[in-house]
């Protein structure tokens, strides 16, 4: 993941992202309060600096193929695995498949709940996880991911499974509730 930018175009973005990696929440807040035009894109949900830092760390370590650090983030904050970063909605799995394509790290993400059916990108440029793999030049990886999606089927998506489980607990018409 590119963390360095033309500071004349993106003032303080590199410092903000470095502060995310180092859990320097006060520094993140100080930079955010400067109201740079890029900040809304970095934090479209207006999350706390602590949450934003954890999300960026999962993204960054996925992109950099740093499984050891990624394991620490996911272990401490498993919710980061499918939480988007920036207004484009990048995910740890899309960072990994588009940059290095390392199957071991991608398998780790999948084993820990990464949803390969989620879409990322801006409103006019949505793409799939396999599409991001192709974008990164990893065609075989894209085919493998498509096979995983086909095997799992739509009902295997984590959110759908949770909703289905909730509905299965509701008594059917005419059944006793206990």
Description:
The chain has 178 residues and is an all-alpha fold. The protein has a single domain (13-169), classed as Alpha Horseshoe (Serine Threonine Protein Phosphatase 5, Tetratricopeptide repeat), CATH 1.25.40. Helices cover 54% and strands 2% of the residues. It has helices at residues 13-21, 25-32, 39-42, 49-63, 67-76, 92-99, 103-111, 129-135, 139-152, 158-169; strands at residues 119-120, 127-128. It has a two-stranded antiparallel ribbon. Strand 1 and strand 2 (127-128) form a beta hairpin. It is globular and about 45 Å long. The mean pLDDT is 86.
Q: In summary, what is this structure?
A:
By secondary structure, this protein is mainly α.
Features:
globular, 178 residues, mainly alpha, 54% helix, Serine Threonine Protein Phosphatase 5, Tetratricopeptide repeat, two-stranded antiparallel ribbon
Task: Map the helices and strands.
Blueprint: H1 13-21, H2 25-32, H3 39-42, H4 49-63, H5 67-76, H6 92-99, H7 103-111, E1 119-120, E2 127-128, H8 129-135, H9 139-152, H10 158-169
Antiparallel strand pairs: 1-2
Number of strands: 2
Distance between the termini: 53 Å
Briefly note the structural class of the backbone: mainly alpha
**Helical residue percent band:** 40-55%
Output the helix-strand order.
HHHHHHHEEHHH
* Arithmetic mean of pLDDT: 86
What is the fold-level CATH name, i.e. the topology? Serine Threonine Protein Phosphatase 5, Tetratricopeptide repeat
Describe the largest sheet: 2 strands, antiparallel
User: What is the count of DSSP helices, taking H or I runs of 4+ residues?
Assistant: 10
